Amino acid sequence: MKRLWTPAWIARHVAMVVLVVGFLGLGWWQLSRAAGGNALSWGYAVEWPVFAAFVLFVWWRELRHTLRSAPGDAPAGPTTTEPADRVAVATPSATPTGVRRPVRVSRAPATPVDGADDADLAAYNRYLAWLNANPGARPGDYPG
Asked: How far, in Å, are 24, 28, 44, 63, 83 from residue 41 at the CA level?
């Protein structure tokens, strides 16, 4: 429960109370205007309490998320990129973050299954290569 009394959470609690009270007050104001004969205010009289309910929903969801996470959990960030021989030995209590380095895969152009080249595909690739070589050109400027 101490996690809910940090300065960031105190600001969230205060913002939630201010927003809910403000939205309900605006709903009451619109309800009094609607009772006075303003037909458009009936929609706003319903809308403002819905906004207050949404604020309560988001606050409650974030509260539950914080309480369910482990106290020492930090947001997942980038992992170290140092070689294994230069990384300090981790303590047994350290837990992996689940973030791993991406696997590098070399890409080779795909060959057609039957071994024959597609003429339309080759023409389209020439067109793309020309667009890449002429970055300021428009597609209508293509000479081919």
From this structure: 14, 10, 5, 33, 66
Contact 42, 34 (CB under 8 A): yes
Q: What is the per-residue pLDDT across 127-143, written as a single tens digit (0 to 9) for each?
A: 888 888 888 888 788 88
Give the integer Cα–Cα distance in Å for 89 and 65.
Answer: 32
Closest Cα to residue 48, out of 62, 61, 30? Answer: 30
Give the C-alpha separation, 119 to 87, whole Å: 53
Are 98 and 76 a contacting pair, CB within 8 Å?
Answer: yes
**CB contact set of 66 (below 8 Å; sequence gap of 6+):** 3, 4, 9
More confident residue, 110 or 141: 141
Using the structure block, give the residue that is written with the tokens 């293509």: 142
User: What residues have CB less than 8 Å from 86, skipping those under 6 apart?
Assistant: none
Q: Alpha helix locations (H) across 5-136? A: 7-35, 41-68, 119-133
Asked if residues 61 and 29 have their Cβ atoms less than 8 Å apart, the reply is no
Q: How confident is the model at residue 102 (pLDDT cuts 50, 70, 90)?
A: confident
